[in-house]
Queue: 2 jobs
Job 1
Amino acid sequence: MRALDLRNVRFRYRGSEAAALDNVSLEVEKGEFVTLLGSNGSGKSTICMLSNGLIPHALPGDLQGKTEIFGFDVKEHSVAEFSTKVGIVFQEPESQLFCMSVEEEVAFGPENLAVPREELRERVEWALELVGMKGYNDRSPFSLSGGQKQRVAIAAALSMRPAMLVLDEPAYALDPVGRVELYQVLIELKEQHGMTVLLAECDSEEAAKYSDKVALMKDGRVVSFGKPRDVLGDPERLRSLGIMPPQVSEVSALLKERLDGSYFSFISVDEAERSINEMFTNRKRGSKP
Amino acid sequence: MIPRVPPSANQDKIISVHGVKFVYNGGVQALAGIDIDIRRGDYLAIVGGNGSGKTTLAKNMNGLLRPTNGSVTINGVSTSEQTVAELAKVIGYAFQNPDHQLFCSSVVEEVRFGPLNLGYPEAEVAKKTEMSIEAMGLSSVKDQPPFSLTLGERRRVSIASVMAMDPQVFILDEPTTGLDARETDDLMEGVDRLNLDGRTVVLITHDMKLVAKHAKRVVVMSEGRIVLDSDPRGVFTDLELLLRSKLIPPPVAQLAHRLSSLGVPRDVISPEELVFHLMSGRGALE
């Protein structure tokens, strides 16, 4: 059983002529970190909303093919049923924060499930600790920085104890350090708690660094799906899909052009450092008579 | 009497910010003492973490906010002696969220609104409108309502409507947030052209790749102060200072730092440069 299993899925929003998803097949295994990468309008958000049943239950339209979430058919179960399996976090934390205090915000979901008081408290503390917001219980969510708000939104999803977290461009308004902190929270959730993470992004830098797999999307289709190094290594192709390539992959492509052969194929700074050092130090040694 | 600064000293300064502090109602101090001169033709990026005071500084430059202490002068005249409308002729400001400034029923109407309000004759309004729409690549959607457009297009409409007022300075607040690669390239092409045409551009952003590629001068803000004012090369060499300011250099600059033993200088900011240095170092060894 997979966390998310899409088979030949087609979806058209009601009132729209174009297909938002056009024959998409995608498998997300339990415990994997998968990034959906694509330009605006490529279908990333539609997959996010399908993965917890918002589509087709809250956003109606014509849904075809098979969508299974932890083995349950999306058409046969309600958003409420999926809410304990899948937590969703949107682009703008403001759009989903509405309580007077951080604690109320994080307690809201499980409170609605009539979780007993003592357990509710435990869940809130657990979720706040995981996102690095312990002790912020009584603060107003609106007094927090953008990055902190986003982490409260994640804590609010976590307090439902989901097995999968779905995030739609969660870092888009954050400063660079805020982005790193957010991704560190996600990686810790995956590594320490076995959380499945499905994330939509426009920029490939973090996808290259943190994902187990990346799905490249274009016009409602998944055009590549695989390990980051297999799908993110060709900057030209990514640009043609409207995706910003990892910056060091451009170094890799330029070196490939200049130095015959396929010595260089890197997408992260760490890899680049290692392989450039190896290459140039060897050459230096080799070139001495 | 207010002492007059001799005109020559001010000649190429468009915006002069002097000892500016700003405190919001409720007591939050967003600017803690800012001094900066922006010169004609500058292509300046103001960078810094969320809440560092970037937007507050911008709004003090266009008169939307007036400093609590200190002064902001535009072409030698204090903003406190000018109305926002007067300032709008000199300083154009495109909001972070374009929907905060768009309200008309078509792109053309939207872009016409500014010059019409400034009292330009119809022929002039039409000319400025057309030029701005053209420059921002919006000709094919000019009769559509702005709200039917994509975020990238709406951002360009908001910049076109600023452009139509023909200001000397363009302040663009996070213009690429939420845009994908192609939308960003399209928009920045238009912005680069504005600067090439001699207009002063102030870009507020925390996208370091964007800064490295486009800006000619970078100001780093942290906790309401300017902590560094440099060219893009200089900015990315001080990792400590950047980190304290919630910023991280672009990946290529990070890589350059780690390859200094191969003769790569620490102030590299583009993939092309990095490869150039690697190859020339190698050439010298052989």
Note: The interface with chain A takes residues 48-51, 150-152, 177-184, 206, 208-209, 243, 246-248, 250-252, 254-255, 258-259, 261-262, 271-272, 274-275, 278-279, 281-282, 285-286 of chain B (CB under 8 Å).
Job 2
Amino acid sequence: MTAPVPPHADTPRRVRVVLADAARERRARQARVELAEQTRVGEALVKGLMRAQLALALRLAAVVAIGLGALPLFFAAAPTVAARRPFGVPLPWLLLGVAAYPFLLGVGWAYVHLTERNERDFTDLVERP
Amino acid sequence: MNGYAVPALVAVTLLTLVIGAFGVRLGRTTSDFLVASRSVSPTWNAAAISGEYLSAASFLGVAGLVLKHGVDMLWYPVGFAAGYLALLLFVAAPLRRSGAFTLPDFCELRLGSTGLRKLATAFVIFIGWLYLVPQLRGAGLTLRVVTHGRYELGVLVVGVVVTANVALGGMRAITFVQAFQYWLKLVALAVPVAFLLLHWQADGRPAVTPPGGPVFAHATTVRFDQETGFTLTAPVVVQVPTGALDGASGTVPLAAGGHRVTAGARVLFPAGAEVPRVRDVDVDRGADWLLPFQPGDRGLFGTYSLILATFLGTMGLPHVLVRFYTNPDGSAARRTTLVVLGLVGLFYLLPTLYGVLGRVYTPHLLLTGQTDAVVLLLPGAVVGGTGGELLGALVAAGAFAAFLSTSSGLLTSVAGVLSTDLLGRGSVRDFRIAALVAGAVPLALALRVDTLDVSEAVGLAFAVAASSFCPMLVLGIWWRGLTDVGAAAGVLVGGGAAAAAVLATVLGAPSHGWAAVLLGQPAAATVPLAFLVMIGVSLATRRRVPANVGATMLRLHAPDALRL
């Protein structure tokens, strides 16, 4: 990547020094060291993150297991509902042939959104103890 | 014979080679060659992953199965797409952060065992070849249907082109080729289907499931490749220009009941005639086809087994995982997977329509059992004339793109593990030699196998992947207690049982009762078995948990923003 060269490239940029920033940076470095060196605090932090991420993945997997996985049982248990024809197409064809895909995409989108929030929370926790 | 088909197939093949050669010029270093130097943007990468994933099974097989068996078969495409959701939820980001390029790499990184690495290599090769054979078979079938050429020729052409392209081009070239092929496949199904629907509308929307079973929409000549017995429920008068029907030829009036036709015979059925039932061709009719789980269907166990195999098998397919290494970091891997889920889902809206319209316009495939050809034959049967031939050529080109891209991806990953683990140490030269070896074996197998349902063979590859690599990946990423002995035991027992079921099915297993269901769809039994064995043996060998498991877990799960 080549950024365009500013007109006065050799003049050093003005930097505002805020003492709190430096302190925060120091604490963040400390936290990273704790994580990397596997101290008990670091280990507990990672375990907490893993637990949160796994719980999220399992919850969304359950949504799919119920939303899609229960369909065969449902069709078997309620054949009259399965024989209904909204828009002239039998319900199982409509659900499996069309509706399943936006549903899967929606669950995927929700996962990416929520898991990134978990990671942001974790990063904030580490960098701002 | 479609005059535009051969030029279309040649064009796709040439374009593949040209784009591949263009990619070769861009790839200069060994790492470019093997992993595209991790510099592929998420959109390109997602299109490439989808292009690689949508195989002959998706392009031809799904429509054929829907034509034959109806609504229960929609679980195949739904499962093929949902597999990416499972991959996204449990595997994508941690696997990318682990830095593993192949499944054997992951075994070594996470569990530090070279023995397990060897076992994983063996499974990668088995799954890769199991998946490659139906691709090559699909290519042979396409060439036979479209050009009336020889089956062996199609197998050879695709086999040789793919092997050469992989050996010469490497991963960088493959990425561009496959991204292009995703869009080609989508267009090749989407454009003809628009014409098909317009024609169906103009024909006054003929019923997909007429009350008396499927009927011939137009007067149709059916060619019987082998001696066939069929039954009719109503009398009909047919023409037999070649061969003999019940010993007669010319104009033959048929009564309701059983009839026999010689091999090589052609029979002209009039428009509106009922499609006879053939004893040897397993086809669902009427309500069986339209609604789930009528008596006599595979039943709940088979359906759940299929769902489990496809949902969990995708993450264990070698050619899918290799792709994740080309993402720059874990969150890019997640975003790529999400785009793939969208692209794949978009594609799978289409094959169902071919299967359904095939019921109206190409019901003779139900007589001959060649339902895998429905996508190829439908445009010509419905539209007719030059337009029909052009659409048929487009579909054939899309089908060829499907074989080329999936086999390239599979071959790249099989050659990758062969060159790093068995034949050499992973140099470009080793990779090229490995590609030749990896391509030759399935080519030889595909030339011999002529009776294999494309989608079902692919389904079996999914079942093996779901019972071996899926438990290892999921437990390896989320459970600190996994040991190398536990992982090896689980892969051997679960994957081994699934592989044994596959071999039994391919070699001709019982076709009735529970044994047939269990062998044909083993995943619902073998996946839980693999998980249980893996957990149980790991608990029993607790002292073998790697000492650095904490550091590994940190690497797999720490957010990219921390840059540890």
Note: The radius of gyration of chain B is 24 Å.
